[in-house]
Amino acid sequence: MVWMCPHCTQPLEARESGLLCVNGHRFDRAREGYVNLLPVQHKRSKNPGDNPEMVQGRRALHRAQLYRPLAEALCDLVATCTDVSTLLDIGSGEGYYDGMLSERLPDLSVYGVDIAKSAVKLAARDYRRHHYAVASSRYLPVMTSSIDLAMCIFSPVNDTEVARAVRPNGYYLEVGPAAQHLWELKTALYEQPREHPLLRRTIPDGTLLREGECRYEKQLTQTELQAVVAATPLAFRGHREKREALREQSDFLITLGFSWRLFKLAPERETGANGVASDDALESSDL
């Protein structure tokens, strides 16, 4: 158990119905198996994170295995990391990548946090062996130096919190869209589509170990195309007429591209006061 009380930062211990700290703060376990570790002061809206439509769209494209090549590449990469028994997925969504990782590495203890309750419900229901919590990536409810490898796929991240949570000589894996990810879809919606910015190559208190890119093309059915649109802000952006025209498209050829960077954290380091990366650098909406 690596969970930390979000109110007093004391360790949380498992009880029959949930989690409890020494100061008496209790967090009940939901029917699906997750806990809610998101204090109201850390919420920016009543229902923060991706809306249910985006979560269901992402679930549909994952079930269609559209992102399986990326998941397999990440499994290969994590398998090369030494002495990794505990993984934290920051912005875990409905748990697709966690499920692939635990199939490949059955001894891995998987923890996941996401601010969207609807996504965490699905993850906890589908992957009972994992540990999921509703929580903000800016205030990770995990004990200091309790994680061997932290992973962030398409989500904002707080560098200070990553450095605090990951043990010395631990790992941090950051994944984002490659320059022309979903390029054909952007071209269909925008007059002047823009490429995604490159992933950063440096992080505080970390050394870049490896980097790579996964790029391929897919011919999408109409159902798959609508799932991709629903999983991203493209469902709400671009010209309305062009969005409507996409509903009639089938056999739509699309480019899927992802970049990743694997960092190793320093053996000795200090955690500062602020390490929040820009939300524009990595967005879950860039799926």
What does this structure look like?
The protein is built from 8 helices and 11 strands. The protein has 287 residues and is α/β, with parallel strands linked by helices. The protein has a single domain (49-286), classed as Vaccinia Virus protein VP39 (Rossmann fold). The strands form 2 sheets. It has an 8-stranded mixed β-sheet, sandwiched between helices. It has a 3-stranded antiparallel β-sheet with strand order 1-2-3, with no helix packed on it. The longest helix has 12 residues, at 52-63. The chain is globular, with a radius of gyration of 19 Å.
What would you call the structural class?
Answer: alpha/beta
Counting copies of identical and different chains, the oligomeric state is single chain
Total helices: the number is: 8
How many separate structural domains? 1
Strand fraction band?
25-35%
CATH topology (level 3) name: Rossmann fold
- The general outline is globular
Helix percentage range: 25-40%
> What's the CATH first level?
Alpha Beta
Corresponding CATH architecture = 3-Layer(aba) Sandwich
Low-confidence stretches: 272-285
Numbering strands along the chain, what is their spatial order in the largest sheet?
A: 4-7-6-5-8-9-11-10
Mean pLDDT over the residues: 89
**CA-to-CA gap between the ends?**
30 Å
| Number of DSSP-assigned strands | 11
Order of helices and strands: EEEEHHEHEHEEHEHEHHE
